[in-house]
Amino acid sequence: TSFSTPKKKKRDDGMREHVTGCARSEGYYKIDKKDKLKYLNNSRAFAEEPPADTQVRTGPPLTAGEQRRLLSSFTGSCDSDLLKFNQLKFRKKKLKFCKSHIHDWGLFAMEPIAADEMVIEYVGQNIRQVIADMREKRYEDEGIGSSYMFRVDHDTIIDATKCGNFARFINHSCNPNCYAKVITVESQKKIVIYSKQHINVNEEITYDYKFPIEDVKIPCLCGSENCRGTLN
Predict the structure, then answer these.
(1) Where is the SET domain (predicted)?
(2) Among 16, 83, 91, 214, which is most exposed with the fewest C-beta within 10 angstroms?
């Protein structure tokens, strides 16, 4: 026990030379502050250095106009419908429903809406044609005269009669300011109402129902100059 431990030497590369040949057998020893600072400075410089193939933007943050232009540039390479749908979910348009001069209730804009923008998604239950026929008869027996069913494709129908949103209050017009479009989001088909032109505040939102031609006609009350007279 009286033997003194040999002094540990340093190698040319700055690392300590282990006398016993194994670092574990020599236990814990302190590192000089100079060596520690040298190591920290090297590691910090490596972490702060950006990769050669990346571009780092310096300067003030982007303005609202620059953000819109940057976002519009993405639409050329990405799916614009999906991008607009995500925008619609992030910030919904300000809309309200109230009495309409066309028919009963209607949907009105509470803010200006530019052309070719997503206004609202038509939300409801996805049902099959057989269920839709059964519900239509039941709704008639219950005294629900208005139809809030929207066909997505040959097999799927969205029923917004009892579990829908404001989109079900949109009235038909032969000269509409919006149109309906079916988009696919995460392998699921959705119906979204797009603005066909600029929509002013307090202007009623309308689209063409495009009902199939039938013998029993449904009168159209849109009052536009090119009104067809019937919805079907």
Answers:
(1) 93-210
(2) 91
pLDDT in tens, 212-224: 888 888 888 888 8
Query: Per-residue confidence at 78, pLDDT binned at 50, 70, 90?
Result: very low
Which amino acid is it at 164?
A: G
Q: Fill in the amino acid letter for 96.
A: K
Q: Are 102 and 221 in contact (CB under 8 A)?
A: yes
Q: What is the pTM of this model?
A: 0.61
Q: Which of 50-59, 80-89, 137-146 has the highest mean pLDDT?
A: 137-146
- pLDDT greater than 60 at residue 40: yes
Which CATH fold topology does 32-41+79-123+170-231 show?
Answer: Beta-clip-like (2.170.270)
Question: Which amino acid is present at 172?
Answer: H
Residue 133: in which H helix or E strand, if any? helix 129-142
Q: Where are the domains of the chain?
A: 32-41+79-123+170-231, 124-164
The DSSP 8-state label assigned to residue 143 in this structure reads T
The dihedral over CA atoms of 27, 30, 35, 40, expressed in degrees to the nearest 10, equals 90
Please check the confidence at residue 20 and state whether its pLDDT lies above 70.
Answer: yes
Cβ-in-10-Å burial (0-12, 13-18, 19+) of 221 comes to: middle
